[in-house]
Known about the structure:
It is built from four helices and no strands. It has helices at 2-17, 24-39, 47-64, 68-111. Helix 2 packs parallel to helix 4 (68-111) and helix 3 (47-64) runs antiparallel to helix 4 (68-111).
Amino acid sequence: MTLRLCAVLALSLLAGCASDPAPTAQLQLTEEALQQAHAVGADAEQEDLRVAEAGLAAAREAFAREEYREARMFAERAELDARLVEARILTAKSSAQIAELKSRIRQLRTELGGRP
């Protein structure tokens, strides 16, 4: 009976001490997402981009302390923030292009004698 109890305690202790794997792939994904946000035109002045970069820095710090679960959570959040920045920039660019096309269409209609 005590042998079983010791075995159960030892297993639960080992399970409690088991750590998450190092989130190196997630950190790489986050770095790539930030690079992509920069590539589409994000700049350091954007608050959302600063939040994403701060999240990556926090993930790296947690990684250095070998707190892998915390590092993964920071990195995932930073990746999503970077992707949000990218999506907002692309949406704004698309909206500007649509507005320009509508303006050109109105101009062409006016030149052709149609209604604006």
